[in-house]
């Protein structure tokens, strides 16, 4: 799934491809916001991590992967 993170005072958003579920991402942010000086950590698909101070997260957009058909036959299924 694709997660877009808007960080306060940063003009460009962070885009992360992750294997975590939408609920896991949302819980990770909620947990980080509950702690003083909490840090939001998101694992990407290439075994890397994105680390953002939770208090600086402006928005979080979670988009499920779309299953796309291939070829002309997929439009008739």
Automatic annotation (TrEMBL):
UniProt keywords, alphabetically: ATP-binding, Nucleotide-binding
GO MF annotation list: ATP binding
InterPro entries in alphabetical order: DUF3107
Pfam families assigned to the protein according to its UniProt record, in alphabetical order: DUF3107 (PF11305)
Name by which UniProt lists this protein: ATP-binding protein
Organism (species): Actinomadura verrucosospora
């Amino acid at each position: 799934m694709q997660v877009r993170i808007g960080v306060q005072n940063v003009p460009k958003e962070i885009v992360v491809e992750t294997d975590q579920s939408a609920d896991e991402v949302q819980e990770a942010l909620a947990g980080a916001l509950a702690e003083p000086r909490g840090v939001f950590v998101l694992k990407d698909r290439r075994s890397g991590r994105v680390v953002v101070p939770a208090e600086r997260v402006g928005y979080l957009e979670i988009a499920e992967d779309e299953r796309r058909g291939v070829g002309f036959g997929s439009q008739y299924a």
